[in-house]
Write a structure and sequence with these properties.
Shape: flat
Strand order of the largest sheet: 4-3-5-6-7
Oligomer: single chain
Radius of gyration: 40 Å
Largest sheet: 5 strands, mixed
């Protein structure tokens, strides 16, 4: 073959793609941005999450995964809080804020439901991905990036957790309703009964407490037949040393709750206030007739609405013996001439000491005690009270008229004793209260005497 007419191209003179000066160029991999992860662990103490790993276990497992995959974890955050409602987890809310501020660009967690079990928090995570603040979320065995498919899968998994949570709530309510229909009230039984902690689920019963039940029966009997009050039962139980399950003495309020609890006669309402009543499948401690008799004995006339009866000096005094507040009540006495006399008595509320012996004091005696103290207050102090200026001027004019002073003459000096007596006898309730504030001290009542606290 004749090759004399064939021309060869000098390739050394031409630079081909991927070559520099005729030599191949090595390919350079693009630089990957490092992701700063925050390891987030959460555990709720609620029943629906008792099977989840503990916080320490979550941190241990994810730390191993981070080390194996070479992840850069800059901080570990944990909290014990339910994720049922959005915006209620302070640690998670701070994490969202820190991701927005650029402190983290990724989250490492055991499972998607550790991050969100509600639509609000899930939306916050997806928004961070859409805005570019969050590069990825890693869980045990899964990675979620900002790609549409990953975000969709993340939303599916978190929504599934919410669905399970909602269904669990429905199932719990249905279970409680079924238990009530079987004659057993959910929750702990009241004092006098014992819960069965050993039988299987759905087979647990209620037993009568052989030690406390007889005492409770005596309490109901004393009220129904002996016509004693809840306070008498309180003193009696305190005297015999009757205690609660925790070994504490019964309080007066708990005694009244016990005496008003129909559970002891074999019926119960659940939930309380719902109007749904059930017949119990346990042995009643007392008969229905005894319970009704107690309710009739404890029945009191309905109290007036708050604010319908206000007395002049209430909320301004404290008991000098026990530190409780001072309240008032009125009494009426029919006279022989057909008229009716009203009396007002002030006494200790006994809110801090049920046995406080502080005696009653009539309003007239209390007023005289105030007058004696107010006699030492300066006129300048009274004039600074805006609500008393008008009364002070009126008292001056009245005093001048009584003493026969004419206009232009020097006015007499105010007699503080008479002025205090004038306001506390003739003034309005607001004027009386404002006058007493001139004492500039806490007022105590002890042994029917008023004194100012140091």
């Amino acid at each position: 073959m004749d090759t004399s007419n064939i021309k060869f191209t000098n390739t050394s003179a031409r630079q081909l793609p991927g070559e520099e000066n005729g030599k191949p160029i090595e390919a350079v991999a693009p630089t990957k941005l490092r992701v700063n992860y925050c390891l987030y662990a959460r555990k709720s103490s609620e029943d629906d999450e008792r099977q989840a790993l503990s916080i320490d276990s979550q941190i241990k497992e994810m730390a191993i995964q981070a080390e194996m995959q070479g992840l850069h974890v800059t901080e570990i955050r944990k909290e014990s809080h339910s994720a049922k409602e959005s915006g209620q987890r302070p640690v998670f809310q701070q994490l969202i804020k820190d991701v927005k501020d650029g402190l983290f660009s990724g989250i490492l967690s055991w499972a998607p439901d550790r991050l969100s079990r509600n639509a609000g928090d899930l939306g916050s995570l997806v928004d961070l991905m859409d805005s570019g603040h969050m590069v990825e979320i890693r869980t045990h065995g899964q990675t979620f990036t900002a790609s549409p498919n990953d975000k969709f899968l993340l939303m599916i998994l978190c929504s599934q957790a919410k669905l399970e949570n909602d269904n669990r709530g429905v199932n719990v309510k249905r279970g409680m309703r079924t238990k009530c229909e079987l004659g057993f009230r959910p929750n702990l039984t009241p004092l006098g009964y014992l819960n069965d902690h050993y039988s299987g689920k759905g087979q647990k019963k209620v037993f009568i407490d052989p030690e406390k039940a007889p005492v409770i029966v005596q309490a109901f009997t004393k009220v129904a037949e002996g016509h004693v009050s809840g306070r008498d039962i309180y003193n009696w139980m305190k005297e015999i040393g009757f205690t609660t399950r925790s070994g504490k003495l019964m309080t007066l309020s708990s005694i009244y709750r016990m005496l008003n609890n129909p559970y002891y006669c074999g019926i119960f309402e659940f939930p309380e206030g719902s109007g749904k009543w059930y017949k119990g499948s346990y042995e009643p401690i007392i008969h229905r007739e005894l319970f009704d008799a107690v309710q009739k004995q404890l029945e009191v006339a309905p109290k007036s609405k708050p604010g319908t009866k206000v007395f002049d000096y209430t909320k301004m005094l404290k008991c000098g013996r026990c530190g409780s507040g001072i309240t008032a009540q009125e009494k009426f006495k029919n006279r022989k001439n057909g008229t009716r006399k009203r009396y007002v008595y002030y006494h200790c509320t006994q809110s801090r000491d049920f046995d406080c012996p502080e005696p009653y004091i009539r309003e007239e005696d209390l007023r005289e005690a105030f007058i004696d103290y107010l006699s030492e207050v300066s006129v300048e102090e009274i004039e600074r009270r805006e609500g008393l200026r008008t009364e002070l001027d009126r008292f001056r004019r009245l005093s001048s008229a009584v003493l026969g002073h004419k206009a232009g003459e020097e006015q007499p000096e105010i007699n503080l004793h008479n002025f205090a007596k004038y306001v506390l006898s003739e003034g309005t309730r607001d004027e009386k209260r404002e006058l007493l504030t001139c004492l500039n001290a806490e007022i105590h009542l002890k042994d029917k005497h008023v004194y100012l606290a140091n």
